């Protein structure tokens, strides 16, 4: 009886639930101001090829909050994704990433880098997404061939034909596509070779625990096989150790990203790291 009452109390008057709702509402209000107040930052994490040569970066969003410091995207992207706010934020990310890409074009070390940008489903599904991106490319001078959009499986669950059409239009412009967090979604495999994809990205949750969880090793190896058989490049994220990298290389992985190479860094810090570390810049075979 008491337990029953407790349950009802919990359901209808849970102070934690209310606290969470209030915090969320405050977060959303704060977040709306973040773009205008110039509090968003892009960090860049290197991607390397088989010879450990840096071939590009992934742009990863941070929110430099005046009170809470550097807020990771997991704390605010889900709130932004509940509505149109993610479209505004995503637009800022694309423009900032393209401006950085154009700035790097003047340095021979970075001139050929690709820039991977995470795109939320709602952002990609905007009717003016292609036009908006064209305008950003024109304004920044970034080359579409160096832009790689990271999409997730959830995008293909609703209106897959419309999504495919949009991808094909972007593909014609030279833009490339990576399928992020592959293996963590719920969609079918049938769409894989019907979409103009260039790269499969093995989710970091499989890679980080490669040696602790036998199932994750099997899944990672299978994703590499699947990607190779479909003619796609396979990149692993969450590579934290040389052992991770070597195991993945032995199983046919093409490219790598993770703390083993570098954490995500502001552009200036990334350039400093590259200058001080010849190995990251030119790979193990250099000099
Ligand atoms: P993601 O796109 O799968 O990005 C990879 C995440 O793994 C990043 O977390 C990165 O910092 C982290 N990571 C990379 N290497 C390692 C490693 O070796 N070990 C571990 N433990 N973690 C590693 P981050 O930056 O916190 O981003 C989390 C997620 O937030 C991203 O996952 C992406 O889904 C989303 N996100 C980030 N920036 C954007 C953005 O501009 N737009 C959108 N829509 N989503 C974004
Ligand atoms: Mg990503
Ligand atoms: Mg991922
Ligand atoms: Mg992820």
UniProtKB/TrEMBL annotation:
Residues 24-278 form the EAL domain. This is cyclic-guanylate-specific phosphodiesterase.
């Amino acid at each position: 009886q008491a337990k029953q009452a407790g349950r009802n109390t919990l359901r209808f008057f849970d102070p934690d639930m209310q606290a969470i709702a209030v915090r969320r509402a405050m977060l959303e209000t704060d977040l709306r101001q973040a773009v205008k107040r110039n509090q968003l930052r892009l960090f860049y994490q290197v991607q390397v090829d088989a010879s450990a040569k840096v071939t590009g970066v992934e742009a990863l969003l941070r929110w430099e909050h005046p009170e809470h410091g550097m807020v990771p995207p997991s704390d605010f992207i889900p709130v932004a994704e509940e509505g149109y706010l993610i479209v505004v934020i995503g637009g800022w990310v694309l423009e900032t990433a393209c401006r950085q890409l154009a700035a790097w074009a003047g340095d021979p070390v970075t001139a050929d880098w690709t820039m991977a940008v995470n795109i939320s489903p709602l952002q990609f599904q905007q009717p003016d997404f292609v036009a908006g991106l064209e305008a950003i490319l024109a304004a920044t001078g970034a080359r579409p061939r160096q832009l790689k959009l990271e999409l997730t499986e959830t995008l293909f669950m609703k209106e897959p034909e419309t999504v495919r059409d949009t991808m094909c239009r972007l593909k014609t412009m030279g833009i490339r596509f990576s399928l992020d967090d592959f293996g963590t979604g719920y969609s079918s495999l049938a769409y894989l070779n019907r979409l103009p994809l260039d790269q499969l990205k093995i989710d970091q949750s499989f890679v980080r625990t490669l040696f602790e969880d036998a199932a994750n090793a099997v899944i990672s190896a299978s994703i590499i096989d699947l990607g190779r058989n479909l003619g796609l490049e396979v990149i692993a994220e969450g590579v934290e150790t040389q052992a991770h990298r070597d195991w993945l290389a032995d199983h046919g992985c093409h490219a790598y990203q993770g703390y083993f190479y570098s954490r995500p860094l502001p552009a200036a810090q990334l350039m400093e790291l590259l200058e001080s570390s010849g190995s990251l810049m030119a790979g193990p075979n250099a000099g």
